[in-house]
Amino acid sequence: MPIRIYHTADNHIGISFSQYPDAVRDRLLKERFDALERMVADANTRNAHFFVVAGDLFDKLSVTAKDIKRTVDILEHFAGEAVLVLAGNHDFCESPDSKLWKTFRKAAEGSTVLAFTAQGTKDFTLEEGAVRFYACPCPSKYSAEPVTGWVADEPKDAGMLHIGLAHGNVEGLGLDADQRYFNMRESDLRAAGLHTWLLGHIHVPSPAPGTTGRPTYFMPGIHTPDSVKCTHPGHAWWIELGADGACAHQQLSTGGVRFLRLKRDLRHANDIDALKRECDLLDAPNTVLDLRLGGCLPEADLAALNTWVEGLASTFLHVDRDQDIDHLLDAATIARRFPEGTLPHALLTELLADAEHPGDAHSALQLIEDLTKR
Questions:
Q1: Which of 180, 249, 308, 339 is the most interior residue, by most CB within 10 Å?
Q2: Whole-angstrom Cα distance, residue 173 to residue 166?
Q3: Using CA atoms, how far apart are residues 3 and 242, in angstroms rounded to an integer?
Q4: pLDDT of residue 349
Q5: Local structure of 362: helix, strand or coil
Q6: d(CA 232, CA 225)
Q7: The sheet that has 318-328: what strands, in order across it?
Q8: Which residues, in sequence order, are bridge partners of residue 318?
Q9: What local confidence, expressed as pLDDT, does residue 125 receive?
Q10: What separation in angstroms does the CA of 50 have from each of 92, 164, 293?
């Protein structure tokens, strides 16, 4: 029977979401815990042996004791062998006196929730076989060097699984031009002599869905989205490792909210209708929608668009809008603004009919509006 592992990372509990209104902020803060709770329940349903958090369980060192205890309470509901929590670069452990990790250990005292804040190994013996974890926690927020180099020199007992836990960038997976984030090379991870690595840090999951065999490493990505930069719905890995090294794995969707940016160029009523249909398909109550709208629309269509967008606030979790849409001057707009027979009506109608100079009518309207304001 294989060793069964539920692998998450980058949960960032304690992130502030201060840019949002209070009600939205509270919902997003709650989702950090709710998603963790759902994963623990799912891991129990799957009879996982280990629940692994590969760094950045917390967003910062100053997370409150209340949030730490709430997090530990959730993790303590895991029914398997142990919860293994690695210090990442956001919740790094510089010394044994770390306030965050002392508070965490006190809250987890007497449970199977274990904090890996110092380099070392931890062995477990199960009916399914023996497994050794190699913990490579972050001692700081930034480093030009990885903290995984020591693993290659460790003796590897035959007949047991060897699994590394680390946090940082992997060359080719994430950008780290300044070498600040414990940058690891896949070749070095492979040369360490382990069956696989469970990593954190990059908020995009790896390997790609459909990958077969036993990957050198797994990166789960963030467990539930925290901004429009996260284009996936939140993920974790389900991993089964046999005593012979055989590996089966499944990417799980774990998030309960979505952040979505829609950039659209609107030039016709049909474009607005298409945008409406697209939004109708979204899970509005659980979506933070960021609209980036440009283009050129007739006055009536623009007014209808604005009314519709303002109404989205009552259905979506939150809506942000960045809009730069020009008025499209047409005969109906001219007739509404200027009575027939007036000089502006005649001038604008004539200019609008000049297909070779489509911008002249708009320029003339702007000039007329500027003059009437004086």
A1: 249
A2: 15
A3: 6
A4: 78
A5: helix
A6: 7
A7: 258-266, 287-298, 318-328
A8: 288
A9: 96
A10: 22, 13, 46
Length of the chain in terms of residues written: 374
Query: Under DSSP, is residue 328 helix (H, G, I), strand (E, B) or coil?
Result: strand
Q: What amino acid is encoded at 91 in this protein?
A: D
Q: Residue 52 contacts by C-beta under 8 Å, 6 or more apart in sequence?
A: 5, 6, 7, 8, 83, 84, 86, 165, 198
CB 67 within 8 Å of CB 146:
no
DSSP string, 85-105: EE--SSS---STT-HHHHHHH
Instruction: Please say whether the beta carbons of 236 and 7 come within 8 A.
Output: yes
CA dihedral 84, 90, 96, 97 (to 10 degrees): -130
Please give the structure tokens belonging to residue 37. Answer: 């709770």
- The answer to whether the CB of 332 falls within 8 A of the CB of 356 is no
Q: Output the DSSP codes for 112-157.
A: SEEEE-SSEEEEEEETTEEEEEEEE--SSS-BSS-S-GGGGGS---
Residue 335: is its pLDDT beyond 90?
no
Higher pLDDT, 361 or 272: 272
Instruction: Give pairs for 43-46: CB < 8 Å, separation 24+.
Output: 43/6, 43/78, 43/80, 44/77, 44/78, 44/79, 44/80, 46/4, 46/6, 46/238
Q: d(Cα 223, Cα 277) in Å, to the nearest integer?
A: 28
Residue 275 · residue 294 · CB < 8 Å: no
Q: Which helix (H) or strand (E) holds 322?
A: strand 318-328
Q: What is the pLDDT of residues 138-162, one digit of tens each?
A: 999 999 999 999 999 999 999 899 9
What's the number of CA atoms in the CB half-sphere (13 Å) around residue 305?
A: 29
- Please provide the DSSP assignment of 222-289 as one string: -SS--STT--S--EEEEEEE-TTS-EEEEEEE--S-EEEEEEEEE-SHHHHHHHHHHHHTS-GGGEEE
Question: Highest-confidence range of 163-177, 203-217, 252-266, 315-329, by mean pLDDT?
Answer: 252-266
Non-local (6+) Cβ contacts of 241 within 8 A are 2, 3, 5, 131, 161, 163, 195, 196, 214, 247
Task: Tokens for 43, please give them.
Answer: 């891991």
What pLDDT, on a 0 to 100 scale, did the predictor assign at position 1?
Answer: 85
What DSSP string runs through 221-239?
A: --SS--STT--S--EEEEE
| Side chain identity at residue 127, one-letter code | E
Are 275 and 264 a contacting pair, CB within 8 Å?
yes
